[in-house]
Amino acid sequence: VYPEPDVTSALSLRVASVVAAKARDFALYRVPEGQRAYYVRVAVGNRGPEPASFAEGVPWWLHVSGDPLVPATSMPGSFAECRAPEIDEPMSAGQSAEGCLVFFVPKDKSVESVDFQPGDVTTAVRWTP
């Protein structure tokens, strides 16, 4: 259930894969020094009954070793290797979207989980690779 003030909807969530990106995928882009890119394929659907709004974007995070949370990185629409889910705002009941998110993780860290975290850490739904 995804709560908001005066609105409640049930969301369906899925993490299909977590894979390290190939360096050649970023030949035209700059990966921050000391970072490695990961692709995370996700899906989100609104089962209703109300529309769901994501004011700050859909809250997917990578939880990495040492306990930090890493946010997804915005990539240009021309980046064909990994395209973010296209989500209408608000997402109507019955709608769903799937796509790929890019995360930059320090090379000395490992991915412990993919988290859907709409609030503080107590609201996290967690998948372990």
Summarize the structure.
Helix content is 0%, strand content 47%. It has 129 residues and is mostly beta strands. The strands form 2 sheets. A 4-stranded antiparallel beta sheet has the order 1-2-3-6, with no helix packed on it. A 4-stranded antiparallel beta sheet has the order 5-4-7-8, with no helix packed on it.
What structural keywords apply?
four-stranded antiparallel beta sheet; 129 residues
Secondary-structure blueprint of this entry?
Elements (H helix, E strand, L loop, with lengths): L1 E3 L2 E14 L14 E15 L10 E5 L4 E3 L24 E11 L4 E6 L8 E3 L2
Antiparallel strand pairs: 1-2, 2-3, 3-6, 4-5, 4-7, 7-8
Explain how this protein is built.
- It contains no helices and 8 strands.
- It is mainly β.
- The protein has a 4-stranded antiparallel beta sheet with strand order 1-2-3-6, with no helix packed on it. A 4-stranded antiparallel beta sheet has the order 5-4-7-8, with no helix packed on it.
- It starts with a strand and ends with a strand.
- The model has no long low-confidence stretch (mean pLDDT about 90).
